[in-house]
Amino acid sequence: MSAGTVTVSAAGLAESASPVLELTEVTKVYPGTPPVHALRDVSVRVQAGELVAILGPSGSGKTTLLHLAGTLDRATSGQVLVTGLDVARLSDRQLAGLRASSVGFVFQQFFLAEHETVLDNVADAMLYAGVSQATRRAIAAEALARVRLGHKLTARPTQLSGGERQRVAIARAVAGSPAIVLADEPTGNLDQHTGAAILDLLEELNRLGTTIVVVTHDQAVAGRMRREVRMLDGRIVSDAASQPAPSAAAAAAAASPVAPHPWDGEPR
Amino acid sequence: MIAISPQSRSAAARLRPADLARLAAVGLRTRKLRAALSALGIAIGVGAIVAVLGLSSSSAAGLNAEIAALGTNLLTVQAGQSFTGATAELPLAAPGMIARLPGVYEVQTTAQTSVNVYRSPVIPSVNTNALTVDASTLNLPAASGTSVAQGEYLNAATANEPDCVLGAAAAQLLGIDKIFPGERVWAGNTWLYVVGILKPDVLSPDVDSSVLVGYPFADKYLGLNGYPTTIYVKAVDSQVNRVYNLLAAQSNPENPSEVDVSQPSSALVAQADAKSAFNTLFLGLGAVALLVGAIGVANIMVISVLERRSEIGLRRALGATRAHIRIQFLSEAILLAVIGGAAGVLAGSLATAIYAHGRGWQTVIPAQAWAGGIAAALVIGAIAGLWPALRAARMSPTQALWTI
Predict the structure, then answer these.
(1) What does DSSP say about strands B132-136 and B210-214: parallel, antiparallel, or unpaired?
(2) Is the pTM of this model over 0.80?
(3) Is the complex ipTM more than 0.85?
(4) Which of A62, A94, A128 has the most B C-beta neighbours within 10 Å, making it the best mutation to test the interface with B?
(5) In this predicted model, what pLDDT tens digit does every residue of B326-375 receive, in sequence order?
(6) Which one of B1, B4, B322, B324 would you mutate to disrupt binding with A, by most A Cβ within 10 Å of its Cβ?
(7) Which of B220, B241, B262 is the last residue of a domain?
(8) Are A147 and A171 in contact (CB under 8 A)?
């Protein structure tokens, strides 16, 4: 693959598509003494098909931004549009419906149910979408095949490695074909090599059309995305196409080559 | 690729009932021992209540079966009180009059003497044990509802002799459980030779505590005045009510109000249906166990909600509404309690069956006992689970997901 052509095609998508996520002058204040201003007048748009990194140190407001984008929380002021719908105008029930159909989450801690099979963990993504169990399992099997875990459908999460668990979580996030996938430090609990494989997977899913936002504090991770939104103290300080990773991260990336992917050689 | 239909995409989040049932079992499947222990409290409470109700119903059924076997066609006539309050007497002609009633096929009488009975002459005369000698007609056991346990009953020959038959209670009080040749008891101024012992008489306890001799002997040696004390009347089943209504007038046409007519089986039926004080006590204990069980379920659910914060957060992120979380935890509490209740019903029924079998009773578990037990468990689960479920639903998804 050539990085140039990918960038062009992503840019082309961004030009034509409507924004999946649109935050306009959003402020979030957590009440307390003193009140915490987690976000101050943040405006950001994510178009369909984009692969965006939100980069910042801890306390910069990036996780709060993810909560608001995922409709898990409401903004103190400003407007949040998800798939064109104004979050402030939707009831709790409607927001849950929006999350069920349009938003996928990937967490640092995976959050897989240990007592359920890999297949059912992924199938649960559509539990609240009113889909029958048979259909859910069929979709889940497809999603697991996409993350190359089609051979581990009946395994329990406890029998999987960390990287495999995160791939299950990613399958769960993309199974319902959401408009946007929000990933919170998806490589935070993984070693560098496994983390790189996960990022490869996210890139590949993005190429297949999934809009992905990755929140991270890791410059090396952000460097793998096509767009990088830097945050500091609740404000966006820069929003541009990704910079090449700093030398240390570049060296690390070189040490763990992107291709061949660790899971490319696995039997299917 | 399989796609979710646009309809379901636009609709608000919803959960299928089958999926809810599966979700309700999640907590119980993953923590089996804990679920079993907390259901145990409910099981003990429901089990105690079912067993108490089952045992009292089974014993009533057993007594009713006994009554049915003895028949409900025995009627007794006794002297009542006169207008002035003095004890009345039944006319000498009463038995003969009663025998003429259509439908009556057996009339037997006893007449009480004033003679007391003792084991031997050396027993102080005040230790009567409330035992008296009664004169009896010759076919009394069949009429009063008993039969001879040992020896034989009085006959035309022994009725003239100092021979007696002991009622079951009288035999026990006199310390005689076996008839040896020459076995005798002391009746004031003469010996009575024991020729038979009766089986316990369920319908006529009076017979139980009597020492029975023949009328001719009693007339001659014990100063019997001849008036019958109790008349045992057997009527054909279809005529029992009619005979019952006629007995007083037929026995004593002059003063029908001085005659007491009763049907012993109906008193026993009433006794069978009566609830004992122990029942109330054990029902109370069962209720306390249920209360403790309910607190146990509530406690487990509170802990469960705290432990499963990340699961709650994940479910909210996957699109669960507050109502979905609430109903999931509420269903789990109800399921837990109902499982406990069902186990309790089983245990209580089993205990009842074993005890009833041992006593030869029919096992009866009243519908209100088992249905009530399950229903009580359901209500308890709902009440115990309500607050934890509300707490789980109130939890904000961000709090649930990110504060571990």
Answers:
(1) parallel
(2) no
(3) no
(4) A128
(5) 999 999 999 999 999 999 999 999 999 999 999 888 888 888 888 999 99
(6) B4
(7) B262
(8) yes
